[in-house]
Design brief:
The chain is mostly helical. It has two domains: about 60 residues; about 40 residues, no CATH class. Helix content is about 80%, strand content about 0%. It has two helices and no strands. The protein is rod-shaped, with a radius of gyration of 33 Å.
């Protein structure tokens, strides 16, 4: 074997070794980034669910409610709020917002 051939093989091996190291390092960095970015997102979601729980079911104050139950309670609460809005709109329609309406009740 010639010297040139040995040098070429050696440099190729070094090149492959260095490239492999770089790729592994990049993969490790990606894994670390994924792990780090998931934790705050999971924490934020859990925090939002806790806030929703406190808004919808204030009587449980701190009790853990199953997620499906929380969503059911939330849907029921939304229906209740929509019903209240419709009732208020009908009352405004009926009584009007002027003072000369004959349907108005004086208190």
């Amino acid at each position: 074997m010639s010297i040139m051939n040995l040098n070429t093989k050696h440099s190729y091996k070094l090149y492959v070794k260095k490239a492999t190291r770089i790729i592994r390092k990049q993969q490790q960095q990606r894994r670390r980034r994924r792990r780090r970015s998931f934790k705050p997102m999971k924490f934020k979601l859990s925090q939002k669910l806790q806030e929703l729980n406190n808004l919808i079911i204030p009587s449980h104050s701190g009790d853990i409610v199953k997620l499906d139950q929380l969503f059911k309670e939330t849907a029921d609460y939304i229906v209740l709020l929509r019903t209240r809005v419709v009732v208020m709109q009908k009352l405004i329609e009926f009584y009007g917002n002027n003072h000369e309406n004959e349907n108005a009740i004086l208190l």
